[in-house]
Design goal:
The chain has 87 residues and is mostly helical. Helix content is 36%, strand content 0%.
Length: 87
Amino acid sequence: MKVNVEIFKKPKPFCEGNLTLWRNDYIAFEVLKKHLDSTIDSGSQKGTTIEKSVKWLRQKFNAKQTVLDIGCGPGLYAIPLYMDEAL
């Protein structure tokens, strides 16, 4: 099996990559649309899944603790975690 090891090398920090996929307006729009669709567990989670996750987090951690919502996605957990009630 022939493997291009170059694709597995870690890029330099803050270095622009060569992946042009996200520069395509149609793809960028469709990905964002999936992320913001609260009826499916796809790019992001359904609203009900987020609600259950936030409830679980609140049960596991002290209300005074700080939570960092980090990763790929539009921050759909940030507001429910900040608010007194989930979604």
